[in-house]
Design a protein that fits this description.
The chain is α/β, with parallel strands linked by helices. It has one domain: Nucleotidyltransferase, domain 5, CATH 3.30.420. The chain has 6 helices and 5 strands, in the order βββαααβαβαα. It has helices at 56-63, 66-72, 79-92, 104-119, 131-139, 165-180; strands at residues 5-14, 24-32, 38-45, 96-101, 129-130. Strands 3-2-1-4-5 form a 5-stranded mixed beta sheet. α3 packs across α4 (104-119). The longest helix has 16 residues, at 104-119. The chain is globular and about 45 Å long. It starts with a strand and ends with a helix.
């Protein structure tokens, strides 16, 4: 019997737009079955990369979001430890992990870079499922119109979106499952 797909909703908080010159500060993943059963979570706050610096625009945004900043700067782990632990967690899931994010381009770029750099592998292979693209298909609209403000309210569960990576991953994972179950 084939293993089910496990939708790993992932959110990243960073101090700039790209990995390397900037650091992934925190990430959270919530593993869901298609029926919206949450089967596990993983999160880590990371030490910054040696030589990396915060991007001025991103750091200005963080200055306006102090509670989220404080949350992502507690109990920071070396990236090599966090990513090896993350790979072990992913491999213990009872199915094939599928990376899911909103938008996938940003979050996957950081997670994939960190996985390859610090763990030497990506259980997601080279791919990610983009929630904006799924919304575009479901709403039968242009990509730029596939925004949360244009999505039906019934797609959203009453969950926080507070820029704390794990909270946001759980919230977006529930949204993803609600969208997934609207397919015809």
């Amino acid at each position: 019997m084939a293993k089910p797909e496990i939708y790993v909703s992932t959110d990243v908080e960073s101090d700039g737009p790209i990995p390397g010159p900037h650091s992934m500060l925190s990430f959270g993943s919530a593993a869901y079955l298609a029926d919206k059963t949450l089967i596990g979570t993983f999160s880590a706050n990371l030490e910054t990369l040696p030589g990396a610096t915060g991007h001025p625009e991103t750091m200005a945004w963080w200055a306006q979001n102090q509670p989220a900043w404080d949350a992502c700067r507690k109990d920071c782990l070396p990236p090599e430890q966090a990513m090896v632990d993350y790979v072990a967690w992913l491999k213990k899931l009872p199915g094939k992990p599928v990376f899911v994010a909103y938008p996938a381009g940003f979050d996957f770029m950081f997670v994939y870079w960190y996985l390859i750099r610090f763990a030497g592998e990506s259980p997601f292979s080279h791919s990610a499922l983009d929630m904006k693209t799924l919304a575009m298909a479901l709403l039968k609209t242009d990509y730029r119109e596939a925004t949360k403000r244009n999505m039906p309210r019934e797609w959203f569960d009453p969950l926080p979106h507070n820029h704390i990576a794990l909270d946001d991953a759980i919230e977006q994972g529930a949204l993803f499952c609600n969208m997934l179950n609207r397919r015809q």
